[in-house]
C-alpha cells in the first residue's frame, strides 16, 4: 500500500473487502441450499481462496488487512501510521456488519434459520461446546499467532517468497480453517465475528474473538520484530517521492560488516526502479566491481575499507559512502551470534506449530464429520506450507532433524549447526504437543488416543517392523530429494512452500496407514513424550534420518549439487560504466 493513497480510498477498500469476506465467505456455510453437509476442507478452502482474491483486489490500495488484528500488526511494524489505525478498524467493523447483510440479501431466511448451529445463528463464531473457555481462548490465540507470523513474514523485505501474497494467504487461511474449524470457527478476526453476532444477537463468549486475536497480534508482532528483526519494503514510498528517487537512510552505516552490507544492497535493489547496474568502489586500494542486474557482491573484502556505492538507474546516479572500521578477528562476529539465535528460535517455533496444528487435525471427537486420513494429510501439508512461508527466510524451515542432517550432508549448513537445529526442533516438538493439550480437553485426547495415546506414531499392526522401517525410510528419502532440488540453485524456487506442502500431503496419503507417516523425529517425539509411549519409537529416528542422509548423498554425488548458480555476473571495467551512461 502506498502511504500517499487518499484516506477515503483506504477506508472504502477496507470496508468493501471486509464486507465481501463476511458476506461471500459465510455463504459457503449454507449447507441447506445444497442439501449436503460441507466438509471442513471445503469451507476452509472457500474462505482461503476468497481471502487470496481479496488480497489481490485490494492489497495495493489499503494493504487488504480485513482484520483489526492485522491492522494492529501493521501499526507495530510501521507499515501504516498509528493515526490510521482507528480508521482501518472502524471500516472493518462496519464492513463486517454490512457483509452479513449481504448474506441475508442473497439467502432466504428459512435457509439461514435451518443452517443455524445450536440456535446461535448461521456462521456465528461460537466455541465448540466440548471446549472450556481456556481451551477456546488458547485456540484463537494460537491460530491468530500463526496468522500474524504469516503477515509479518509476508511484509518482511528479506523474505524471498513474498512476491505472491494472495497465494500465501490463501494457503494460510485454508490451513488454519482445516485445523481449527471444528473448535472455534476459527475466527482470528474480530470484525468477521462481530457482523454475524450483531445480526443474530448472539454474544456467547464473544469477548474471546476480540481479546485473543488482538492480544496475539500485539505479542507476536513485537516478538517477531525483536527476535527476528524486520525489514520494511520501501518500494511504494520511493514511488511517492519523485524528487529523491535514490535517497535512502542507512542506520549505523559506520558499523556495517559484510553481512550487513549485503542486506543493505538487498534493500536498495528491492526499492530501485529498474536499476541498470551498480558500482561498488573500494578506495583502499582503488578498485571496482560492477553487478549488472544482480544483488550479490561478486568480489572483494569490505573489512577496513571506505566503500562508495553508486546506484545507477533512470535518474542521475546518487553515491553512498560507507566508512567501515577495521574488523577485530579475535572477537566473535555479532551478526553470526544473532543469526544463530534467530535460527534456533525459528526452528523451535516452526516445529512447535507443526506438532500442535498438525496433530490438531486428528481430533475426530470434536467434529461431526467422518474423519478420514485425507483430512490429516491435507491439514499437515498446508500447515507445513504455511510454516515454510513464515520462517523459510530465517532458518530454511527444516522443522525436522532428519532434514537438517540431509542439508548438512549437502554442505548447505556446517555440521556444527546441527547442534543448533536439532535441539531447537526437539524442544519445539515437545512444546507443540503441550500447546495442543492447552487447546484440547483431556476427554477428547483420551477418546481419540486409543491404546498408544493421541497422535502417537506407531506402525500398523498388520505391518512388520521391517515394512514400517522401509516405509519411513523411502518416504523421507523422497522428501529429502525434493529439498535437494529446491536448494539446488539451478532449480525453480518460485513455489517452494506449495511444493513442500503438496509433497507432504501425498506422502501422508500413501504411507499414513502403514507407519503413521512421521518422516520427522521431532514430530514423533512430542506426542511420545507427553503420552509416555516409547514402543518402537527408535524406528521414527533411525529410518527418517538414514533415508534423508542417503538421499542427500545420492543427489550430491550422482546428480551434482550446486550451492551457487552457474552463471554469475562478471566484474565490469570502470571504463565500460562510462560508456553505458
UniProtKB/TrEMBL annotation:
Keywords tagged on the record: Cell membrane, Membrane, Signal, Transmembrane, Transmembrane helix, Transport
Signal peptide residue numbers: 1-27
Bilayer-spanning residue ranges: 45-77, 89-112, 132-152, 164-182, 207-228, 344-367, 373-397, 418-436, 466-486, 498-517, 537-555
Subcellular location as annotated: Cell membrane
Topology of this chain in the membrane: Multi-pass membrane protein
One GO cellular component term noted in the UniProt record for this chain: plasma membrane
MF terms in GO: channel activity
Major subcellular site: membrane
Matches recorded under Pfam families: MIP (PF00230)
Family in the record: Belongs to the MIP/aquaporin (TC 1.A.8) family.
Protein name as annotated: Aquaporin
Organism: Cloeon dipterum
Amino acid at each position: 500500500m502506498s502511504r500517499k493513497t487518499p484516506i477515503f480510498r483506504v477506508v472504502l477498500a477496507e470496508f468493501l473487502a471486509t464486507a465481501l469476506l463476511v458476506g461471500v465467505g459465510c455463504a459457503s456455510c449454507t449447507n441447506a441450499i445444497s442439501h449436503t453437509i460441507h466438509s471442513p476442507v471445503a469451507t476452509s478452502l472457500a474462505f482461503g481462496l476468497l481471502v487470496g482474491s481479496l488480497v489481490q483486489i485490494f492489497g495495493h490500495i489499503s494493504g487488504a488487512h480485513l482484520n483489526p488484528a492485522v491492522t494492529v500488526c501493521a501499526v507495530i511494524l510501521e507499515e501504516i501510521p498509528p493515526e490510521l489505525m482507528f480508521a482501518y478498524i472502524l471500516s472493518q467493523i462496519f464492513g463486517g456488519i454490512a457483509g452479513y447483510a449481504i448474506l441475508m440479501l442473497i439467502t432466504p431466511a428459512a435457509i439461514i434459520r435451518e443452517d443455524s448451529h445450536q440456535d446461535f445463528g448461521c456462521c456465528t463464531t461460537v466455541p465448540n461446546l466440548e471446549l472450556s473457555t481456556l481451551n477456546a481462548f488458547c485456540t484463537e490465540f494460537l491460530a491468530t499467532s500463526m496468522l500474524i507470523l504469516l503477515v509479518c513474514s509476508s511484509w518482511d523485505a528479506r523474505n524471498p517468497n513474498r512476491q505472491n501474497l494472495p497465494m500465501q494467504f490463501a494457503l494460510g487461511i485454508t490451513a488454519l480453517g482445516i485445523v481449527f474449524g471444528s473448535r472455534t470457527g476459527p475466527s482470528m478476526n474480530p470484525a468477521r465475528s462481530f457482523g454475524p453476532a450483531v445480526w443474530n444477537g448472539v454474544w456467547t463468549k464473544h469477548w474471546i474473538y476480540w481479546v485473543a486475536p488482538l492480544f496475539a497480534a500485539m505479542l507476536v508482532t513485537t516478538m517477531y520484530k525483536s527476535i527476528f528483526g524486520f525489514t520494511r519494503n520501501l518500494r511504494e514510498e520511493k514511488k511517492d517521492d519523485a524528487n529523491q528517487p535514490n535517497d535512502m537512510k542507512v542506520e549505523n552505516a559506520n558499523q556495517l560488516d559484510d553481512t550487513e552490507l549485503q542486506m543493505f544492497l538487498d534493500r536498495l535493489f528491492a526499492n530501485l526502479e529498474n536499476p541498470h547496474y551498480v558500482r561498488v568502489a573500494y578506495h583502499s586500494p582503488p578498485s571496482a566491481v560492477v553487478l549488472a542486474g544482480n544483488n550479490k557482491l561478486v568480489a572483494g573484502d569490505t573489512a577496513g575499507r571506505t566503500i562508495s556505492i553508486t546506484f545507477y538507474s533512470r535518474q542521475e546516479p546518487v553515491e553512498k559512502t560507507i566508512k567501515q572500521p577495521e574488523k577485530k578477528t579475535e572477537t566473535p562476529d555479532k551478526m553470526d551470534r544473532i543469526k544463530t539465535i534467530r535460527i534456533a528460535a525459528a526452528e523451535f517455533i516452526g516445529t512447535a506449530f507443526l506438532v500442535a496444528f498438525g496433530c490438531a487435525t486428528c481430533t475426530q471427537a470434536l467434529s461431526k464429520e467422518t474423519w478420514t486420513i485425507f483430512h490429516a494429510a491435507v491439514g499437515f501439508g498446508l500447515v507445513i506450507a504455511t510454516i515454510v512461508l513464515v520462517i523459510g527466510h530465517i532458518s530454511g524451515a527444516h522443522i525436522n532433524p532428519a532434514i537438517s542432517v540431509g542439508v548438512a550432508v549437502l554442505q548447505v549448513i556446517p555440521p556444527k549447526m546441527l547442534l543448533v537445529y536439532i535441539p531447537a526442533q526437539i524442544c519445539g516438538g515437545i512444546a507443540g504437543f503441550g500447546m495442543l493439550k492447552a487447546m484440547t480437553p483431556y476427554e477428547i485426547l483420551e477418546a481419540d488416543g486409543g491404546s498408544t495415546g493421541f497422535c502417537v506414531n506407531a506402525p500398523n499392526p498388520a505391518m512388520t517392523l521391517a515394512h514400517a522401517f522401509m516405509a519411513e525410510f523411502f518416504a523421507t528419502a523422497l522428501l529429502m530429494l525434493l529439498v535437494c532440488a529446491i536448494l539446488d540453485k539451478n532449480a525453480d524456487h518460485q513455489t517452494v512452500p506449495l511444493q513442500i506442502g503438496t509433497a507432504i500431503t501425498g506422502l501422508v496419503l500413501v504411507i499414513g496407514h502403514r507407519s503413521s507417516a512421521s518422516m520427522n523425529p521431532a514430530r514423533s517425539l512430542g506426542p511420545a513424550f507427553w503420552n509416555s509411549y516409547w514402543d518402537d519409537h527408535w524406528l521414527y529416528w533411525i529410518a527418517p534420518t538414514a533415508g534423508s542422509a542417503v538421499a542427500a548423498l545420492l543427489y550430491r554425488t550422482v546428480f551434482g549439487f550446486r550451492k551457487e548458480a552457474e552463471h554469475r555476473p562478471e566484474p565490469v571495467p570502470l571504463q565500460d560504466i562510462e560508456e553505458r551512461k
